[in-house]
Amino acid sequence: MGVLTISDREARGEVEDLAYAAIREALALGPYEITHYEIVPDEPAQIKRVLRLWTDREGLDVVLTSGSIRLSRRDHAPEATREMLEKEAPGIAELIRREAYKKNPLAALSRGVAGVRGKTLIVNLPGGPQACRDSLEVLLPLLPEAVERITGRPVGQLAQSFWFE
């Protein structure tokens, strides 16, 4: 699995990547492990470069992006991701938004997308650690089935109890 953080400030080293820490903590329950991690500025060409590399050359099963999905003029992750997708999986992004909205109504302003490129599921997550945890609470139970359908390989089930219950 790869985690791509998209943030100008984090790419410049001005702030710590707290969402990545939240993702690592959630994935500690298995069966996934992070094998690739990178921080890029919010530049579509750089986002697409990493997505292309990790999906086409590295063949990762899952790529999670973190950050750059708000309505601001500088947030380009959804558009860059959408250009890389062969198939969208709108139900994943819709479910994440719907469930996150119950905890934070501003989640309705999220523009994250999800879909497939080759045999890789790509999902845009928010950049804030709590919003990332809320999104993962929804996403993690879906991953084994999604990955199996995309790759044709069974994946072990995730632990049923999450730290954020």
Automatic annotation (TrEMBL):
One of its GO terms (biological process) is Mo-molybdopterin cofactor biosynthetic process. Pfam families: MoCF_biosynth. Its EC number is 2.7.7.75. Pathway: Cofactor biosynthesis; molybdopterin biosynthesis. Residues 2-146 form the MoaB/Mog domain. One of its GO terms (molecular function) is molybdopterin adenylyltransferase activity. Keywords: Molybdenum cofactor biosynthesis, Nucleotidyltransferase, Transferase. CDD domains: MogA_MoaB. InterPro entries: MoaB/Mog-like_dom_sf, MoaB/Mog_dom, MPT_Adenylyltrnsfr/MoaC-Rel. It is an enzyme of class 2 (transferase). This is Molybdopterin adenylyltransferase. It comes from Meiothermus luteus. The gene is mog.
